[in-house]
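CHAIN AND CONFORMATION:
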Amino acid sequence: MRHGDKINALGRKKGHRDALLKHLSVALITHKRINTTLAKAKALRRHIEPIINKSKKNTTHSRRVAFSYLQDKNAVTELFTNIAEKVADRNGGYTRVIRLGFRKSDGAELAMIELVDFNTEYQGKDTSTGKTRRSRRRRGGKGGSNQAQTVAAAATTGAIAADSSSEEE
């Protein structure tokens, strides 16, 4: 039984799991988006969110703490320069996990994990004008059919009116 066991072991011992999460974290920081299995993506989200949160304060101590987790100078530099300035006003939820389906070979569920502030497609703001985008939806089932009927009626009455005006001449 797994009473109160909050971590997913991912079928690995502690050292192997820590190395896996470290390498996945470095890949996510450098590439901003990676594809992996759903279980690894969820474990990575729990691993990297506190590290990104520490990057908001650019102190020597927070850099050393982040380096102790990542063991990669380039990733730490990227984290404290580009990523930290984008997430400065965000209070959490720095990553997004999107399910991609199942892998053909072994049936594992795949997922894409990405940094939220680096994907402009899912943000609610249009980058060119700064306005929020609104989704266009048709309200109710009758609205579209009524509109189509009125357009068709206008076209037929326009055709009838054109016929009657040509007959009068």
The CA atoms of residues 53 and 92 lie 7 Å apart. Helices lie at 14-31, 38-54, 60-70, 73-86, 142-168. The mean pLDDT is 84. The domain at 14-118 is CATH 3.90.1030.10 (50s Ribosomal Protein L17; Chain: A,).
